[in-house]
Specification:
Layout (H helix, E strand, L loop, with lengths): L3 H27 L8 H15 L6 H18 L6 H15 L7 H16 L7 H20 L5 H7 L1
């Protein structure tokens, strides 16, 4: 009977060490790995992409539409009070830009148009501001990506063909 006591303590000690090892590995493996960015960083990166690509040759009406949508997106991204009218204006400008966008950008811009339209029709007080800022960042990113490629000049290119 006395021989079982040391073996029992040995098993308890082994199980305790194993449990601590499993907990330590779980904590290390589930921690952040540096890939998460704050909302402010996401917005800043998207704005930088948009503004770095917005310089250059653009059709005058496209440049005017981009300036107007950028003003309204900046208001949303800066966390100031934005209104349903602001969201409606962004949706209207996106709708105008979709026809001039490249074929691969149109679905993304169309989805953003739908989301801004939904925000414009949402009751006051039901919009979560960080979600609205993230939508502004996504819009800046989509517009910036289009400016890297076709630059909203698809209609002009099709007329030349």
């Amino acid at each position: 009977m006395f021989h079982c006591i040391p073996k029992h303590r040995c098993v308890q000690f082994y199980c305790a060490r194993l449990l601590l090892f499993v907990i330590a590995i779980t904590c290390i493996a589930c921690g952040p790995r540096g890939e998460t960015r704050s909302l402010d960083e996401v917005v800043a990166n998207a704005r930088e992409l948009f503004y770095s690509n917005s310089e250059g040759k653009l059709a005058p009406e496209v440049k005017e539409e981009l300036v107007e949508v950028a003003k309204r997106l900046d208001m949303v991204a800066s966390n100031s009070n934005s209104s349903a009218q602001n969201a409606a204006d962004i949706a209207r400008y996106l709708d105008q830009l979709i026809a001039k966008a490249g074929y691969t950008s149109r679905p993304a811009l169309g989805e953003l148009f739908n989301q801004w339209t939904a925000l414009a029709n949402a009751p006051e007080g039901t919009i979560y501001k960080p979600s609205e800022r993230l939508l502004a960042a996504r819009t800046f990113f989509a517009l910036g990506s289009e400016l890297e490629g076709v630059r909203f000049s698809l209609e002009e290119r099709e007329k030349k063909l």
